[in-house]
Design goal:
With 119 residues, this protein is mostly helical. The protein contains eight helices and no strands. It has helices spanning 2-11, 18-25, 29-40, 44-62, 67-73, 79-90, 94-100, 111-118. Helix 2 (18-25) packs across helix 3 (29-40).
């Protein structure tokens, strides 16, 4: 499970698919989705989206990056898709989420670490 989490953290900002994941773990794409469903109850694309949203929430809370930058840093192709999926999953827009979750950069989380890793 830790290796899977690491894979998603290292690649959430990239354009990856289940074939890339399968290649990394030396399994078939079909088995990859079976493995992910057994482990997380999610398909590859759903797990990737979950990871992107988790990191977007961290950046919204603990960085002063604008929403458009966060969208790009987290691997979303368009800001309209980011806003749409964020609102659907979080129940609020990214800006509303930021207002509801005021954090201080560097207190518990260093957003620049994520930015360095994915930048």
């Amino acid at each position: 499970r830790l290796q899977i989490e690491a894979y998603f953290f290292r690649h959430f900002h990239e354009e990856v698919d289940v074939t890339d994941f399968a290649h990394k773990f030396h399994v078939t794409p079909r088995y990859s989705n079976t493995l992910l469903r057994e482990t997380y109850g999610l398909s590859f694309s759903a797990k990737l989206l979950q990871t992107r949203l988790e990191n977007a929430k961290l950046l919204l809370t603990y960085s002063d990056r604008n929403v458009s930058e966060i969208c790009t840093l987290c691997g979303f192709e368009t800001s309209s898709y980011f806003y749409s999926v964020f609102r659907r999953e979080a129940g609020v827009t990214p800006s509303e989420y930021r207002r509801q979750h005021p954090g201080r950069a560097g207190v518990f989380f260093d957003p620049e670490t994520i930015i360095r890793l994915i930048g």
